[in-house]
Amino acid sequence: MNTKRLLYFFIFFTFFLRNFYSQNFTRPNDWKKYRKEVIIQVGASGFLGDLGGLNKIGTDFSPVDVEFVLTRPAISLAYRYKIAKNFNWHTSFNYLLVAGDDKLTTEQFRNNRNLNFKSNIFEFATRLEVSFFNSKVGHRYGIKKTLSRRHKSRSSEFIGFIGIGGFYFNPKGKNPSSGQWEKLYPLHTEGQGLPGGPSQYKKIALSIPMGIAWRTILNKLWCVGLEFNYRKTFTDYIDDVHGTYYNKAALLDAYGTKSVALADPSLGNIPGATSPNGDGTGAQRGDKDNDTYMSLQVTVGRFFPPKRKKTRLRSKF
């Protein structure tokens, strides 16, 4: 699924919700009571890149290609401010752990490649949200069971969002000899910086977070919900895999045995799969599509309602 399709889906989703859900509160300005909110989010992360995937040629950017056994923790701290009744501004700091492993696919070329990685991701992101309320309240006046009906009433908010973020990553791979996790960036596994190789990648990149969320307002102070956040990025090196295999002798001379071991830990089931092509160019190690990652999180929010103004009693005399 390319970026344009994701954007079209987001626009369709927001307009669909706008027509489907009623946008109301008990009173016209009740939304102002929920204007400021601090949020804690906990859940799982997933990664879509060059490694692992389905037991066939990968489907770029598709969540169906996620390896669920490699889901890892995702934790966020966020602040939401309601700009208007149906628009929020949301800023967050997010920590995710992402991973990939060719051992989990039976697709012959990737399984033989035998690459793996894991990386911490530290992300700061801000986004614009379009929100739609569906309020459900009981009677307001003093008739039988009114109090219990009002107590059980809830307001649900459905949200579509898109934004921009920046994140830091530092991939590690498991050394096939020692079993230790090694930082891949200083090993230049695809010949970064060497003659004929690519330039060294940066460990800081941009992302475009987009997704959907739902929450239910329990009372004037608390709400709970669920959020799916998909990030398109502008780097293909979160998993340290992007282009072609580099000459192993040159890697050995420049960066040592660890670089060679982690650049090509292939199983040898496909003869010549990691050797140079007939024209002397390197064999394919990865594709050039940028990586993506995502999270599914439970959210708990705490509102900070405006303070009531004290009324002053005026004397009749």
Describe this structure in words.
With 317 residues, this protein is mainly beta. It has one domain: Porin, CATH 2.40.160.20. Strands 1-2-3-4-5-8-9-10 form an eight-stranded antiparallel β-barrel. Mean pLDDT is 84; it is low at 17-24 and 137-151. It has helices at 3-20, 108-113, 146-152, 248-255, 257-263, and strands at residues 36-48, 72-84, 87-101, 116-136, 154-169, 172-174, 181-183, 204-217, 222-233, 292-303. It is built from five helices and ten strands; from the N terminus they run αβββαβαβββββααβ. The radius of gyration is 25 Å and the shape is elongated.
Question: What's the SSE blueprint?
Answer:
Blueprint: H1 3-20, E1 36-48, E2 72-84, E3 87-101, H2 108-113, E4 116-136, H3 146-152, E5 154-169, E6 172-174, E7 181-183, E8 204-217, E9 222-233, H4 248-255, H5 257-263, E10 292-303
Distance between the termini: 75 Å
Number of strands: 10
CATH class (first level) name: Mainly Beta
The arrangement of helices and strands along the chain is HEEEHEHEEEEEHHE
Strand arrangement, major sheet: 1-2-3-4-5-8-9-10
Largest sheet: 8 strands, antiparallel, barrel
The overall pLDDT average reads 84
Supply the helix-strand structural class: mainly beta
The gyration radius over C-alpha positions equals: 25 Å
What's the multimeric state? single chain
**Percent range for β-strand residues:** 35-45%
As a percent range, the share of helical residues equals 10-25%
CATH topology: Porin
Q: Domain count, please report it.
A: 1
- Shape, principal axes of CA atoms: elongated
CATH architecture: Beta Barrel
**Unreliable stretches:** 17-24, 137-151
Secondary structure tally, helices: 5
